[in-house]
Known about the structure:
Structural class: alpha/beta
Strand order of the largest sheet: 7-6-5-8-9-10
GO molecular function, one term: 15-oxoprostaglandin 13-reductase [NAD(P)+] activity
EC number: 1.3.1.48
Domain Alcohol dehydrogenase-like C-terminal: 83-184
InterPro entries: ADH-like_C, GroES-like_sf, MDR_fam, NAD(P)-bd_dom_sf
Keywords: NADP, Oxidoreductase
Amino acid sequence: MWDVASAWLDEQCHVCAQDSNQRNTGPPAAECGVRELNHLATGPAPGIGMPGLTSLIGIQEKGHITAGSNQTMVVSGAAGACGSLAGQIGHIMGCSRVVGICGTHEKCLFLTSELGFDAAINYKKENVAEQLRELCPAGVDVYFDNVGGDISDTVISQMNQSSHIILCGQISQYNKDVPYPPPLPPAVEAIRKERNITRERFLVLNYKDKFESGILQLSQWFKEGKLKIKETMINGLENMGAAFQSMMTGGNTGKQIVCISEETSL
């Protein structure tokens, strides 16, 4: 029986790792519905791994969602690996309304027609502030933030009293010489403090004790059809750089995957 395992390794076709370099997440592969590729056990889709854990644990630990309390969640970078899962998990855990922000009409349609988002905003074509006021008339209670910058400033300005920001990523700020999390503009920071909006640094690796239960929960939702996973695939290790660049500029929908080999044996 295979076990589900993960490790911090380089991009390569094969690896022989010492036990100390591996981290066994615990549940047998059969419990997670895993598939076998190149004699390695992986999740039912790569999104069940780190993106899924980041989204699930981030929402559990920082989102403070209460089923039945009519909460509205907004997700930026909503068509990416974490964002696309976060919106679905928000619905599963009890948010009554989930609105995604992304960069193309096709991605907006994907979020609403396939992933169950209630609405989506194309920030490149639409006025985000106006759309948020229309689509979130009761304000924003939970914000899953993948991007930072102007988009996040706009969302925070429409958040409710004692609401919560899940600080997953700040992709618009990564090339700037600023601390993490990046400071908010003074006017936005004043709103955050006045409304008691939480915005705490979140790192999923600080919650390794929750990985086993998280993988099992995500896998169960996946098998039940409650959680859908999208991947963008590119073939060849030599295209790793191009895939990374595409991901960083919004070229992917869901998890960006580089397929090393389709061979079934080592």
